[in-house]
Amino acid sequence: MFLALVAALLPLLAATALHAPAAAAGEPARDAARAGAVPAAALTEVTNFGTNPSNLRMYLYVPESVTPKPAIVVAVHWCTGSGPDMYNGTEYDTLADRYGFIVLYPSVTRSSKCFDVSSPQALRRGGGSDPVGIKSMIDWTTRTYDADTGRIFATGISSGAMMTNVLLGDYPDVFAAGAAFSGVPFGCFATTDGSEWNSACSGGSVTRSPKEWGDLARGAYPGYTGAQPRMQIWHGTQDDVLRYPNFGEQIKQWTDVQGVSQTPTTTDTPQSGWTRTRYGGTGDRAPVEAVSLQGVGHNLYAQGMASRVLTFFGLDGSGPAPQPGACRVTASVNAWSTGLTATVIVTNTGTTAVDGWKLGFTLPAGQTVTGGWGATYTPSSGSVTATNAAYNGTIAPGASVSIGYQASHGGSSAAPAAFTLNGTACAAG
Predict the structure, then answer these.
(1) Phi-psi region of 142 (alpha: psi -120 to 50; beta: other; left: phi over 0)
(2) pTM of the predicted model, to two decimals?
(3) From CA 98, how far away is CA 311, in angstroms rounded?
(4) Marked catalytic residue, from 158, 159, 202, 292
(5) CA separation for the pair 423, 361 (Å, rounded)
(6) R_g of the chain computed on alpha carbons
(7) 37 vs 144: which has the higher pLDDT
(8) Ramachandran class of 134: left when φ > 0, alpha when ψ lies in -120 to 50, beta otherwise
């Protein structure tokens, strides 16, 4: 029963009172130039935002220093919660103050306060129910603030994490990336009897092959062939509400959707008890990133995690955001007994210029960069990031840049096997 989920989430609901007082509409936003703009730096409810088949409520936070063509982060609450609870219980508003993006908080009105992630209507693009209402909220915000349609993101906790999976499946052309805390794969909670709860999925007994999971997500928008959103997945090993096997099933699904290997490109421990794996790339914006928290239960979200979400999204100012389009990388090596030189050609195969780039790759074991040209290389071994020089930071559509490095080696003189450009996996050759 979904009551188990409600009971498990009560401590998190109580904890939301520790953040900030609930906000209300105040004076008109300073220098608001657009008709319909909401008050700045206050959580404000927006009504009549568009098609809303399941009677969701929409809350919006716009910082005082909102940037031109701002990004939008859709922050989705847990069962028993609300949009204001998500506002109070997370740091996205204060991070928006720092970085200038807009935060949208959908809010459920049905009695369970859980998002619909199970009905046939919810699991197809434009099918009705909650995803359609959330898409209407995004459209309203985009129109009102001339938001950047290439920088729309979703994140959620528990029921909100499940909805994050659903949103990325239904609207892969809308979302650039998502971050799901204690969720399940797209389609895992599917029911046909009107029930909101799927015990087999919550218990971790629904397993499928990567392709089967990928086909479920792709089936929400038949015929779509464009870029797929990146996904960040968080789960505690002791989750007793949405069991830990759902973590691995989500990895299967989104690596297949992204078309990358289920074998991690990197594994590290960013914090004690955490294991982070990245798939299809080595940098902060790999196609899929998964964080497993040892010994942690369902209520895993903690202060500080939102900052890691923003790094994955590319909204924290730590480097260039993922660029639209695609890339191809060709690498060749000239080696001798203890050293080598490598030439790397990066081609923008997309239709939009890349303005500022970071090329990620992993050096074979035993190789150490001793010098380079065309880019700055850090660190000198392992997972390396090559950052553009001042003169070659822009790559026009169809254009290429050539960079290279010199390295010592302990026997293997092979070129790196895979590359990412601003976190997006590149084709080889």
Answers:
(1) alpha
(2) 0.70
(3) 13
(4) 158
(5) 10
(6) 22
(7) 144
(8) alpha
